[in-house]
Amino acid sequence: MSPAAQSHGFLSPSGAEVAFVLVGLVTFGAAIVTVTTRQIVHAALWLVVALGGIAVEYLLLTAEFIAWVQVLIYVGSVVVLLLFGLLLTKAPIGRSPDADSGNRWAALLVAAASAAVLVWVVVDAFRATWIDLDGPAAGSAAVTGASLFRHWVLPFEALSVLLLAALVGAIALSRRQPPAAAAGSRAPDAAQEGGR
Amino acid sequence: MNDVLDVVLRLLVVLVVFLALPLIVGQTEHKVMAHMQGRVGPMYAGGFHGWAQLVADGVKFAQKEDIVPADADRRVFQLAPAVALLPYLLVLIAIPIGPGEGAVGEVVDAGVFFVLAVMGVGVLGSLMAGWASANKFSLLGGLRTAAQLLAYELPMLLAAASVAMAAGTLSLPGILDAFAWWWVPWQIVGALVFFVSGLAELQRPPFDMPVADSEIIFGAYTEYTGLRFALFLLAEYAGIVVLCGLTTVLFLGGWHGPWGGAGLGWVWTLLKTAVLAFLVIWLRVSYPRLREDQLQKLSWTLLVPLALAQIALTGVVKVVIQQ
Fold first, then answer.
1. Which regions form coiled coils (chain A) (predicted)?
2. Residue A83 neighbours by CB under 8 Å, 6+ apart
3. Distance between CA B128 and CA A49 in Å, rounded?
4. Pairs of residues, one from chain A and one from chain B, whose beta carbons lie less than 8 Å apart
5. pLDDT, tens digit, for every residue of B269-292?
6. Across the interface, do A72 and B108 touch by the CB < 8 Å criterion?
7. Cα distances (Å, whole numbers) of residue B209 to A94, B142, B146, B235, B288
8. Region A3-151: CATH code
């Protein structure tokens, strides 16, 4: 930690820090509403607020590129797919009485555990590091690209292989079996697809 | 204080452009469509060739009763037009119309991603309207909107990525600074893919299945009246301006032109945008509507492979000229 970073304290926050905390609270609130509301399409729309709030947090940390990718992928595509699915089921307007699950305590436990792990990892990794927001942007597209393809190439490629596997799996699952094959030679067929 | 004034002034200019250009495109559509169909179009409002027709329409929309259907989800229904319209206003801030930092609302470092990401949010407005209206035609329109997204988003991104690769930057002014005239033939395939996908995003003919008035009344906007309906229409025309402006900036060299210095750059940008907008109108008059599955087929068997081929070509040429 550089000497300049020592001067940061929790008692004299800057404007950006205040905004960061406020946006974080909004994001957290939206996330809570997402999982507790009984109106299922509203849950998807609150998810938009939560994901957008995270994009704003990235922006406040000058990670502009990550922020726009967050909007593009999550708000623009994932939520739209989610809504597409909900529209296909003709999601009712108003409360859905069955929009609840007996597993909710287990879900809460899993959510709390994964949140604890994530928070622990982040806190342990960065401790009291402060990002200098006044200097050149630490998260511009050029900086992000350079660090991604110079220092983190292997995880990046591993992830792309993982996505490819998911894609192939989706194709294999959605391929319709011909009636004859479904009756007779199902086992070898499945084994073959699994091997691909 | 000067900085604040500068920013406010820029945003004001963007707002004026945002309000004026879509109206001009709309009026051009009235007249161009009319003449292509052997009519004269509006002739009375305002006196000279009906120039004030859209102003009169706007006044009419503002006076209409604002109705929310009894079974609708009130808040989502009322919020939807704003969600559909605002993204285009935000995108306009990042489009440069001339050289230098003075001719763009705000320089965005990852500009290409910014415009594509924010434009994608507009779809949410149609989906919200389609679901919240409590109307089966609206629901079908919403479904078609979402299905359409699966077709156009990927080729659009890939085509834009090709230009970013060629320029070596994601910033829109940076792309224009790197532009040379031979980029037009080099990136022409990407340009076509981008423009066609953009038409599908705007739900303009021949890709207007989500609003198809002869099949599902007016899709997701069926239940809207008055100002909220006008906002959806404004979003469509603002979308035309944004798409044509983006195609101009990414593929046609923006403010670069064969004649005139940097001072005339904004004229070139506006001229190219206007020609593309004319093309959009022309396509509406001359092409029949595709079916949703035909768009999917067009996209996944033609646009996506073409966009990938364009990226490969861009990469090869880039490596060759760097040696």
1. none
2. A41, A44, B124, B127, B131, B142, B146
3. 14
4. 87
5. 888 899 999 999 999 888 888 888
6. no
7. 28, 10, 11, 17, 11
8. 1.20.120.1200
- Residues B319/B173, Cβ–Cβ less than 8 Å: no
Contacts of B132 in chain A (CB under 8 A): 41, 93
pTM: 0.84
- The helix, strand and coil proportions of chain B, stated in percent and rounded to the nearest 5, come to 75, 0, 25
Identity of the residue in A41, A69, A137 whose CB atom sits nearest the CB atom of B131: A41
Q: Is the pLDDT of residue A164 over 90?
A: yes
Spans of all domains in chain B: 2-322
The list of chain B residues with pLDDT below 50 reads: none
Contact between B144 and B210 under an 8 Å Cβ cutoff? The reply is: yes
What is the tens place of the pLDDT at every residue in A86-123?
Answer: 888 877 777 777 767 778 888 889 999 999 999 999 88
Distance from CA of A16 to the nearest CA of B (A): 18
Q: What is the pLDDT of residues B124-171, one digit of tens each?
A: 888 888 888 888 888 888 888 888 888 888 899 999 999 988 888 888
Question: Distance between CA atoms of B164 and B174, rounded to whole angstroms?
Answer: 9
Give the model's pLDDT for residue A179.
Answer: 66
Closest-CA distance, A76 to chain B, in angstroms, reads 5
